[in-house]
Backbone:
C-alpha cells in the first residue's frame, strides 16, 4: 500500500476534495455571520455570500460524487486495485462524512435566519420573538454545527483509542504466554542438565570399576603365567585354556558392569 499510495488517483482527488471542503467551511461561516447581521434577505452582501457558497457546494458535490463512484468500483474487487479492506473502509467513511457535512450545509442554506426581518401584512419588518426576551441567548447556527462536528470527531477518536487498547491488551497477553513458555523451557533445561550430570557420574564410576577389574585380571593373568613357568612340566594346551577362561570371565564382568551402569 505504501508503494502505490504515491500514484493512487483517489488520494489526489481526496486532497482536492478536502481543500475545497475547507474553503467551503470558511464561506459557510461567513455566510452564517452575514445572514445573522443582514436586515433583509435581499441584502447584496448576503446574496453574494450565498452565491459563493452555492458555487463551492456545487463543486464539492461534483468532486464527492467522483470519489463515491471510485469507492463503489473498488468495493467490488479491492485486491484487483491493490487496496486492502481497511483502506476501502476508510474511503467509504470519508465520503460518508463529507457527504453528511455537505447535506448539513445545504439544509442550513435553505433555512431562513431567525435574525432576518420578515415583512408583515402592512409591509413593515417585524422583529423575531427572541428580540422581546432580553434574557434569551443569541443563536449561533454555525457554532452549533461546529459543536456537533466536534462531538462526532471525539466519538471517532474514542473508537480509535478503544481499538488501540484492545491491540495493546492482545500484545500483553501474548507477552505473558511467551514468558510462561520460556520459564517452562528453562525448567526442562535444568532437568536435562541434572540428568546429564547423573549419567556422567555413573559413567565415571563404571569406567573406574572396569579399570579396577582390568588391573585385577592382569595381576591374575601374571600369577597364572608365573605358575605355568614354575610348573614347566604342564603342556601348552592347559595354558591356553587358562588364558581363554580369564578372557571369558573378563568379558562377562564387563558386560555385567555395563548393564548395572545402564540400570542404575
Residues:
Amino acid at each position: 500500500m505504501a508503494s502505490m499510495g504515491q500514484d493512487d488517483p483517489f488520494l489526489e482527488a481526496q486532497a482536492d476534495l478536502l481543500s475545497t471542503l475547507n474553503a467551503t467551511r470558511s464561506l459557510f461561516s461567513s455566510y452564517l455571520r452575514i445572514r445573522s447581521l443582514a436586515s433583509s434577505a435581499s441584502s447584496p452582501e448576503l446574496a453574494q455570500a450565498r452565491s459563493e457558497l452555492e458555487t463551492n457546494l456545487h463543486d464539492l458535490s461534483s468532486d464527492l460524487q467522483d470519489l463515491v463512484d471510485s469507492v463503489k468500483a473498488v468495493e467490488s474487487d479491492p485486491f484487483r486495485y491493490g487496496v486492502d479492506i481497511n483502506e476501502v473502509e476508510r474511503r467509504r467513511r470519508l465520503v460518508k462524512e463529507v457527504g453528511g457535512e455537505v447535506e448539513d450545509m445545504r439544509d442550513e442554506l435553505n433555512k431562513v435566519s431567525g435574525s432576518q426581518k420578515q415583512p408583515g401584512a402592512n409591509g413593515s419588518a417585524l422583529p423575531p420573538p427572541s428580540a422581546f426576551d432580553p434574557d434569551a441567548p443569541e443563536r449561533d447556527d454555525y457554532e452549533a454545527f461546529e459543536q456537533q462536528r466536534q462531538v462526532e470527531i471525539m466519538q471517532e477518536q474514542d473508537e480509535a483509542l478503544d481499538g488501540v487498547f484492545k491491540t495493546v491488551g492482545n500484545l500483553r497477553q501474548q507477552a505473558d504466554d511467551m514468558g510462561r513458555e520460556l520459564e517452562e523451557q528453562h525448567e526442562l533445561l535444568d532437568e536435562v542438565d541434572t540428568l546429564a550430570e547423573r549419567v556422567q557420574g555413573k559413567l565415571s564410576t563404571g569406567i573406574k570399576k572396569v579399570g579396577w577389574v582390568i588391573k585385577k585380571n592382569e595381576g591374575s593373568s601374571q600369577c597364572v603365567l608365573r605358575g605355568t613357568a614354575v610348573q614347566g612340566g604342564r603342556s601348552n594346551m592347559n595354558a591356553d585354556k587358562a588364558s581363554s577362561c580369564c578372557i571369558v570371565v573378563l568379558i562377562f564382568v564387563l558386560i555385567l558392569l555395563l548393564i548395572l551402569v545402564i540400570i542404575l
Summary: Residues 226 and 232 are 10 Å apart (CA to CA). The first helix runs from residue 9 to 37.
